[in-house]
Amino acid sequence: MSIGGIEVQGREAVAAEAFLDVANVEGRSQWQLTWRRLRQDKVAMASLAVIVIMVVLAIIAPAFVSITHHPPNFAYPNTGETVAGNPVGPGTAGFWLGTDGTGRDLFIRILYGARISLFVGFVTTAIGVLAGVSVGLIAGYFGGVVDTILARFTDAVLAFPYIVLALSLAVVIGPSLTVIIGVIAFFSWAAIARIVRGQTLSIKEKEYIEAARSLGAGPFRIMFLDILPNLLAPVLVIATLYIPTAVVFEATLSYLGLGIQPPTASWGNILSDAQNFYQVAWWYVVFPAAALLITTLAFNLLGDGIRDAMDPRTERVFAAGRGRRRRDTRRKLADDSGTVDMSRVAPSIPPAGSN
Amino acid sequence: MTVPLNANADVSGSADDDVLVRVENLVKYFPVRAGGLIQRTVGQVHAVDDVSLSIPRGKTLGLVGETGSGKSTLARCVAGLIPVTAGRVTFEGRDITNLSRRAMRPMRRSIQMIFQDPYSSLNPRRRVGAIIGDPFAIHKTATGSERKRQVQELMERVGLNPEHYNRFPAEFSGGQRQRIGVARALALRPLLIICDEPVSALDVSIQAQVLNLLADLQRDYGLTYLFIAHDLEVVRHVSDSVSVMYLGRIAEAGPKDNVYGSPRHPYTTALMSAAPAADPDTAASRQRIVLVGDVPSPIDPPSGCRFHPRCPKAQPLCSETEPQLEVKAGDPATHVTACHFPVKAGENLAAAGRSELS
């Protein structure tokens, strides 16, 4: 327009620059807010650190092989076993955490076991989340016959004795990584689908969904652009809590001899072998069990932390009575999720000591 | 000129080809289902029952009525968001009744909606730029930086700071949120905007701002509004003509000044008397007509005139014969009332109601 208009624009531009920081702070997304709250949660951050360290160790496992010169599947009958044929203890003959029953380096095998365990955990959770979210969204959004069929199928999967199916599949098809991933993923999507379906049912009644329809948006655009972003918070929490479940499930199958097959190392089959030696070689049980315990614990605590950080209302309630009450409630939440959600998907067997 | 029509008056009305949207004998029933596994229909909610109206291009039709009178259902039928049970909706002469989503898509550009609740009508997880940009994305009319430019233009047009493009709805006040809703509805340059109680959820001072914005936009873009509200003063302010709905039917319709100046239907009269007056003297001198009882259930609407159980003037005829929308003596041809015993000028309904009660 006129010079006056330009002037105003210029002033606005200056003002905009001056307020740039403010604008950035105010434009925080839900994720930024969650991250800010999560960063103040010491337990969750420690768990995250543990997980990151675990993942890094698993990835760089070959580097440790080149340092120790102990390949994961290589047995050292002379240096790695006592005269009686038992494992040697930690620190002996360059074996940092000792050796296993056949004289292999336990530390290296735990690292390689971590690769399998974490891989299975992440991949099955990814498949389960993808499938569960898709099924839940479609069932909840379309409703009617589609919903009836999908919801009944979900119920059937949830009601299935998963351990029986897993064992029989492993026996019939023969145990392999693919079968394990398939079985765990097959039993993890159903609970996610059910939660997503419930959320979808409530969200699709919101006016903004009607607004999207009045703009001419198709069902898939609405499902993935309008509904899904509102589901990401609960889905992320579930996913974090599912990873340790899958890890434990894999360990269970391998422990029972129906998972990862020797000589490939997995935490489950290391523990299984350790049964025969725990009286003479404590390290053989303690270290792989500790790895499993620390990993699952870290994922569970991180999941709880994310859940707290996602829900500002919980945060406010906790802020009133910091300390004890906060921790008690947290524990209660963890217990709830552990018994209600998780027990359906994987058995929570104690990694060691039950046998 | 707005002529709310019933079936009989339709022939004369259709000559007027400047009518943008026409609703003819629209019926919308919602089935009431019962039973667990095998559902059966045990009743119908008569949400909208045989409603006809038409809106001339560039004008505003105000639709008033209590909660549950079927206003919003009618709006959703016109917008093509829910299927119609019977009747016809025509837009620019084209029948758009029960079009499939695909067939309706081009029409969406011309018919847009502004929703009641500015809190639930904006997706809390999406940024304002994405929300207002949605129409462009869905209809593939602009992408990338062009879309952003158009969105920011719209934001400026409705009185929002274009710099706030990346903010979330939660960072805006109710009035600003409603402006976002207006910008979204405006994006495709529609001909008709259906405003479903657009200011009911806002503070009075903010209401005026949003109403003025809507008026400005109508002037600048030649928009046609179907304006739904339960606030009589708001409707009087924005409308050219008014239709009063009661239990799914139109009780009275006509030019704004006629309906407000000399209401004919006892229900309209009662509504007007219940509206709060800003001037205490007016308020004190006014006689309120207190309606007895509640709005009857739309599942089983009363026989005859639907208003008769609560009407201070009800006669036996009212429960037997359904009154048609007709021009009453002394009214212009555009003012129609569905009542056997229309209110005459100067008649004191409050007294009638009281004497009957006592």
Structural summary, described in words:
The complex is a heterodimer of chains A (355) and B (358). Chain A is an all-alpha fold. Chain A has one domain: MetI-like fold. Chain A contains 15 helices and no strands. The radius of gyration of chain A is 25 Å and the shape is elongated. Mean pLDDT of chain A is 78; it is low at 1-26 and 314-355. Chain B has a domain at 10-110 and 190-263: P-loop containing nucleotide triphosphate hydrolases (Rossmann fold). Chain B has an eight-stranded mixed β-sheet with strand order 6-7-8-3-9-10-12-11, with helices on both faces. Chain A binds chain B through residues 16, 23, 26-27, 29-30, 206-208, 210-218, 221, 225-226, 229-230, 232, and chain B through 76, 79, 81, 101, 104-105, 108-109, 111-113, 115-117, 120-127, 134-135, 138-139, 163-164, 166-168, 171, 181, 184, 188.
The helix tally of chain B amounts to: 13
Q: Which CATH architecture of the domain at 10-110 and 190-263 in chain B would you pick?
A: 3-Layer(aba) Sandwich
CATH topology of the domain at 10-110 and 190-263 in chain B: Rossmann fold
What percent of the residues of chain B sit in helical stretches (DSSP H or I)? 25-40%
Q: H/E order of the elements of chain B?
A: HEEEHEEHEHHHEHEHEEHHHHEEH
Based on the coordinates given, report the CATH architecture of chain A.
Orthogonal Bundle
Mean pLDDT of chain B: 85
